[in-house]
Structures are given as C-alpha cells and as structure tokens.
Amino acid sequence: MLYCTTSQAGDATLFGQAQAGDARSLAELMRWHDGLVHHVIRRQWHGSLTYAEVLQEGRIGLWRAILGFDTERGFAFSTYASVVIARQVWRAVAQARGEETDHGWPGQAGVSPDPLTYLLEQEVQARLWAMVAQLPVRQREVVRAYYGLAGQRAHTLAQLGRRLGCTRQGVHYHLRRALLRLRHPAFSARLRALVGRNRRQDYLQALRPDRRR
Structural domains in the chain? Predict the structure, then answer.
C-alpha cells in the first residue's frame, strides 16, 4: 500500500496534538501520509506545472487536511485528505492558467468548498441513488424523470403522462407509491441517519400518509 490509513498512522490523539501546534506530530503525520499525495497527484492533470510543483501543492493539501481533519465525523483520513489534496492541486493548475478558482471543482458551480460537506453530499447522493434503484421499474422511472435525476431535466406529471402513455393521475399514483416506499424505515434508515432525520418522530411523520389511504 502506498499510504497508511488513520488506524495505522495514529489515533485521534496524534491528530489532536498536530492541530494544537505540535510540530513533531504534524511532521510524523506528513511523513506517514506522503504516499497518499503521490497516489492522488498521479491521477490528476498537471497542466503546465511540473511534477515537483504539483507534489509541493499536494503536500500543502495534505498539511491542510491534517489540520482540518475531524476524527469524530466517521470518515477515513485518506478519504478526507484525498479530496483536500486534489482540490489544492486543481487550484494551483487553474491559477497557473489564469482561471478563477472560486468553485470547488471545475465545471461544478455550487459545489461546497468544505471537504467534509462535499463527502457527506456525495454519500447522501449515493445512498439516494441506491434507494431509487430498488424501486419497481415504473416507479423508478417516474421518480428519476419527475425529479430530474440521471442528468435529465425534471418533468411535470402531465409531461410524464404523455411520455409513458398514461394519465396524469396514473403518473401521480406511481409517484406517490414510490415516495411512500422510499419513506419507509426499511428503505430510508441509512439516508436519514446521514442527514440527522432518524428520530422516532421523523419516522412517524414519514409514515403518516399510509393512514390516509
């Protein structure tokens, strides 16, 4: 393996010491995870920068990742640091080309600049996609088209009715059934835990429409 995981490289105490200003702890973590920098930058486009220049930027990213890592958030350090390193390198490449670097990633306006928020957003999106993929075919098709998933534009119920060859009411029925299924604890528990909506009252509220059928 090219780099150490958090459990191999040190525990929360070591990160805490580095973040409190202990130069030895910081240097130790930098050394242990230097292989991660090489691993990340080898997969990136360097533009006009040399490998040595990109490596320097990557190490700056690693330094920032060590100082910003929250050991209690549940992410592996290598996962968190990879995002920080890649963004640091991308900014350097973009600046060398005279480009603006306000957004988190090229071509992704509105992406959060905070790595932890970005990782959480990606995990929420992946969990949502996994939930939708478990729906019956027609319900899955309606949800994806109605909400504009899979890179397509959002459709109205009337538009979906014409596309699927059924009435607006028929589309609404499939959409309602899909949403009821997605709200069920068997489907939504992991997603709700990610977004902090997994209290008992949250589930009761989500299941309430079933009583009105």
Answer: 6-96 (1.10.1740), 115-212 (1.10.10.10)
Contacts for 36 with CB less than 8 Å, ≥ 6 apart: 2, 3, 62, 78, 81, 82, 85
Please provide the average confidence, as pLDDT, over all residues in the chain: 77
For residue 132, which of 116, 147, 119 has the smallest C-alpha distance?
147
The contacts of residue 52 (CB under 8 Å, 6+ apart) are: none
Rounded to whole angstroms, how far apart are CA atoms 213 and 206? 14
Listed residue (52, 62, 12, 54) closest to 32, CA to CA: 62
Helix axes 12-19, 23-32, angle to 10 degrees: 120
* pLDDT surpasses 50 at 9: no
Q: Residue 116 gets which letter from DSSP?
A: H
Q: What is the DSSP letter of 110?
A: T
Residue-wise pLDDT for 31-78, tens only, equals 999 999 999 888 877 878 899 999 999 999 999 889 888 887 777 888
> Where does residue 82 rank: exposed (0-12), middle (13-18), buried (19+ CB within 10 A)?
buried
